[in-house]
Amino acid sequence: MILGISLYTWQNRASDRVLLTFFTVLFAGTIVFIAKETISNKIEKISEEISVVVLYGHDNMPLPLQLPYLPELIFFLKALTAKQRTPSQTHVDIKQGSELYFPAVVYAVIKKAMSPFISGWDSEIIQYSSPDGVTTESRGGTLNGKQVDLRYLYDLFKFQLQFEDESQIFNSSHFQKYYQPPNTDIQVTEATDFLCKIEFKNRFITLAISIKIGHHSMGAGEYTTLIGLPEDQTGSATFRIIAEVTQNRLLNGHPDMITHRKWANTIIDGIVRDFSYDKIRSNWLENFQLHGQKALLAY
Q: pLDDT tens-digit profile of 48-60?
């Protein structure tokens, strides 16, 4: 119909009446289209905010509690120079603990959040239950995206820490190389002593992950009695994570938007699953009722 109307108008272009009618309809249709898209094509955004808790002893090493990110914290602390990780006194130094665990938590979040994408940014992500909890597995995927390694991502934050044995936390294996969607720009947009924010941005979406130092205190709260350590021999540090993805509203209907959103949603879901203290505490309490103190301990 549009082609027919355009052809008719072209053949009668000498008529002012035909031209006026054609452009009036064209203008009205354009206004209706813009108004409809402006109202219905809204910016889509998903945001999650969680608390991450670290409990540690007077030696600054994490307490042996069941945490999905416990191995990453242990390896990170052990990789530091002895001078940085060793406390200067017998009781816990919560300021030093908070400063040490800020980069450790950032390292753990990046490593675990990106781990599903070692075989492709558009891999099929499979999750299933096992005796160790929820296991995530990636299958298939294309290798046409941007590949970055864990060391590159960590260095973007410019933490002023010295490592004695980097091989404990960084290596050249494919398990620390992650695929990003094509043409994705990665930047740390904020970096202070208490807050950092990293953004993954392409023409389809912007994924932003913020990590902020929150509350830190002496003792392990409700777990002090269970651990069996004096309050001045333990400390806790709480961090806040905000992860959000924002779509480019002009590309909401693009067929590739679904794949890009799936990539971002997988990262956000993994952060909530592995780091949310509310979820971890709920599992702890349930397991404690069933199996007692041993259910909370990693070793």
A: 999 999 988 888 8
